[in-house]
Structure formats: C-alpha cells, structure tokens
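TODO from last week: model WYL domain-containing protein.
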Amino acid sequence: MSFRKAADLLRLAEIAGARHGGVSLDEIEETFGVDRRTAQRMTRALEDTFRGVRTRTDEARRKYWKLDAGEARMVFAQGLREAELTALEMSIRRAERDGAARDAEALARLRDRMLAAMPGPHARRVEADAEALLEAQGFASRPGPRVRVRPDLLGVIAEALKAPQRLTIAYAGARDAAPRARRVEPYGLLLGTRRYLVACEAGGDGRPRHFRLDRIASARLEPEVFARDPGFDLAAHAARAFGSYHDAREYGEVVWRFAPEAAAVAREFVFHPDQEMTEAADGSLTVRFHASGHLEMAWHLYQWGDAVEVLAPEALRGLVAGHRRGDFPALP
C-alpha cells in the first residue's frame, strides 16, 4: 500500500470513528474526491484493517461504516498533526482579530487539551512545525481593514443564537438621534465589510431585518426562548446580496463583462455563490448572478478599473460610470 493510500485509510478511520452515524460512500467520494469504485475499495480496506468496523443501512438504503470506540481511540491517539495545529492556530487568530473572544478562548482550550494528551517530544515537534507554517503564511501580518466590534456584544449574541433566546438591543438606526430599545429574535450574523445581526422584531411581521453591529450600543439576553421559522435558510438569505447589505428594491440580475486581458484573473474569483460564467470568442468573460447591494458591488468593481463593464442593472452601470480608471498597474 502506498503512503498516500495509507494516509487516506487512516483519515477514513478517523471519520468513521468520529461520526456518530458512521460514514457513507457518498461522503467518502466527496471528502476524498474519488469515484464510487474507489470509495468501495476504501471501505473494503477499512474492514480488512480494523476488526471493529460495523455497518448499517438507513431507510433510503444508504450503507454506513462505523468504527467502534475501542479502535477509534487507537486511531485518535496519534494526536495532532502540524497542519491541523496550524489550522487551529489560524482559527484562534481569526477569532481574536474579529473580536470573537469566546470563540478564541474555546479554540485555545481545545488546542491545549489536545497538546497535553500527546507525548512531550511529539507535541514540541508539532508546535515548532506549526509555528513555521504560520510564519510562512504570514497570517499575523495581514490585519486588513475591519470595523471594530466589542467582544462582549458578540458573546451575548452568540448565547442568544444557541438557545435561541430573545435579545433586547439598544439600536441607533440611520434616522435615530439616539439608540432605542428593540426586542428581537436573532437568526444569525452576516460578515462582510460591515457586520449585521439578522433578526426578526418580536411581535412584528416575521420578516428578517438587519442590524449593524457597530450601531448596537448594548444587548441584553432575555429569559424567553422562541421558535425559529423552519423555512428560513441563512445561506440562501445571504446569497440575496453581493456583500452584507441587503435591499429588496435592488434585487435582480447582475451582469458584468470582463475584458480579455482580465478574464483569466476574473475566472478565479467567486463573486457570488450562484454565479454563471460564459466565455466569448474574443476572450472576454461574462459573469451573471442575482443579488442586491449595488454600493458594495461598486466598491469592488472600482478595483478592476476599465477592465470590467457593467451590462446590468442600469442603476449599477450609472453608479460606476466615471470611475472606471485605466491607470491601475495591476488587477485585484
């Protein structure tokens, strides 16, 4: 067996041991990027290598492979790898950078517990390798512009989202002279140039509204819980905007055409999760999607100078007119 196949088999054993219901062929295909026959060979190798593999079939006749606890503990005893510790450290630093103090503390505790369970020499080697990877990637040296958000505010919102519980927020809208109290039912957070709390007003019409976190003066957790609308999908809701700002009046088809000299670069971008790209005979690239948020689109399009043209909507085309420079020395 090759090193790559052995590593994949160990990873499959980790997944089969960690997931309560086991792992299916579809999940193996998706995780390892293999076809059905290769996934089947991997499950046979799993059964041949580990005696504690059990299988079950669900109502849809999908088969799952589960590694029992005893053998799973042996697999997990190998501890953290440097790439995994690096990912943990990067997540901690992202949380600290974004003001999510509770998330940073929880991840740090997880990291420390896992390192403490490893033999000393192994733990020191993994820590040294992970530190080298972090320095090479330069994560700490890329702060980037962001709006400050108080960690205590994020902590209260996180607690409300778990239950879920209602919140009373002191919020200053664009037309408010001072913050006023609003009782809301939180559904999630949108992270972008600015951050928004997605919530419905308690006793209101049930439509989700957006509250800018930098305009929330305070937040108080209320004792009463509420039932979220089971039909609400945060990812689908977020996809209705280009960034974090939503405006139902702007929602519609967006069409951009990138010049041939910018097409190769633009092709590497995911401008929107539902985008469609088509290439023309002249080498230009057309991108289509449906969203709102013209101002955030204009901010992004400015970076491309005159290498991009807005074909639709007309309102966005007018917004960027006069700002398409041709003297930028590089593309985004």
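Done. The radius of gyration is 25 Å.
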